[in-house]
Amino acid sequence: MRPSNPKEGQKFFVSRQRYYGVDEDEGTVVEIAYGGLDYANPDMLGTKWPHLGEGKEFSDPREAVEAAIRVCDAWRVSGESNAKVAMGATGGNTIPFEPKEYDEARARAEELYEKLPKCDQCGEVLGKQTYSHDLDDQGKFCSEHCADKNYWAIRQQDD
Fold it and tell me: How many whole angstroms separate alpha carbon 18 and alpha carbon 101?
């Protein structure tokens, strides 16, 4: 199987932020930046809870939101009682994101997940690298394994 043209898979980056020039009650957030690290706001704090998902990129926005909630809860326990979760896209600019309640963030993540391109074999979110095979050059697969599996399923149908 061969990789098809690499595509930029949508990434979601989790970081703690203290937005400059924004009221502390609204600007102390665990941010989920659509587009990955390159699209996070510049007011990022040092990574304190990497084991909870801080400082990591996710392909699945639902996983990113759950990581952000874990980090936010840990930050609150450590004394930052006004910490919130915020989601958005900077487009390469500096744009503070509006804080959301946990249930709002989860609902938005579900909406985003539904819109993301998925593997034609297993249904997982496609990453940066996609695969195809000779019997279905229009199909997009998340891994060589899924492309192989689809290839052999088509071969069996043809026999």
Answer: 18
